[in-house]
What does this fold into?
Amino acid sequence: MIDRQRIIDNFLEMVKIPSPSLKERVIADYVKSQLEKIGLEVIEDNAGKSCNGNSGNIIGILKAKGSKNKKILFSAHMDTVSPCNKVVPIIENKIIKSDGNSILGGDDKAGIAAILEMLNQLKDNNLDHPDIIVVFSIAEEIGLLGARKLNIEKYAPDFGIIIDSGGKPGTVTIQAPFAAKGKIEIIGRSAHAGLEPENGINALVVASHAITKLRLGRVDEDTTSNIGVVVGGTAVNIVMPSISMIYEARSFDGKFLDELLIETKTIFRDTAKKFGAEFKEDIVKGYDGFKIEEGSEILKILEDACKNIDIEYKPIKSGGGSDTNIYNEKGIPSINIGIGMSKVHTTDEFIKIEDMIGCTKLLLSIIDKI
Ligand SMILES: [Zn+2]
It folds into this structure.
């Protein structure tokens, strides 16, 4: 049923187009022409202008055929991480990978390829389908900027299916965490370490006292926190005048994350005060987390769709963020489904052709079950 050669050719064509975040122009024009060829109404929004990109999000609209009365969003992102200036895809043992000098960009061009093949199948086989909104977003990798700027409310889909994760087809992310990160600084006072150490305030000592009181690592089963970078000091004979740390915390429980952030800041502030040092921070919350309840309509459809084509339905929690977080934040129940992309964000990235095809079958099965 799936046109194997067409999806492979389309995928290879797209991965060869460099598309780092905010430089998606060429891939945007490519997917625009593909969508138009299939017969969708295509719109480019002005999301790129507000974040200095050279392309907007590409939105495709396909009116329903038959009696299915839902409106479904299908989405994947166009940008990739680097290195991506020259991607040379290689097919070996039914796996597509790069030549080792760049990422492959299956994250997330595999998602785009699956959506385009699904649309081609609907057209070629004259299949019934609901209203379909396709979004190929920009700047996902640098903070979900395209999805954030997109006026998705205008199109008002009932559900969102985002194709942007690993795992075999049938794997579905139904929960992702709230997240926060930022810099913490302790400013003490420098002094000659040999001549007058009592006139200094060692920022490292202050930070150390605070850190012993912090909850770091796996805070509870829903929450993690980490100090990943520390920078401080000027010379061995100078009392360390300041220290800065990069901190992050994530939790499936948004309220608990707020409490943990307050606790962390309070410990640093109180400790700094005790030592006569100064405390600064710029920790901000990024995207919101989400949780799709088991038994909700979208998951029932997905479970049926998996059964229909005899693949395992496998709901999972994810520790990372994607455009899915933004659509849920905007009130559209959305899930992120697996397409088998592996070792993403590395030059070892690869994808099995079977998984790309399996995911396309699943998309068609979802449409069938709506
Ligand atoms: Zn991605």
Notes: The CA atoms of residues 90 and 97 lie 5 Å apart. The pocket of zinc ion is lined by residues 77, 107-108, 140, 164 (CB under 6 Å). DSSP finds ten helices and 18 strands in the chain.
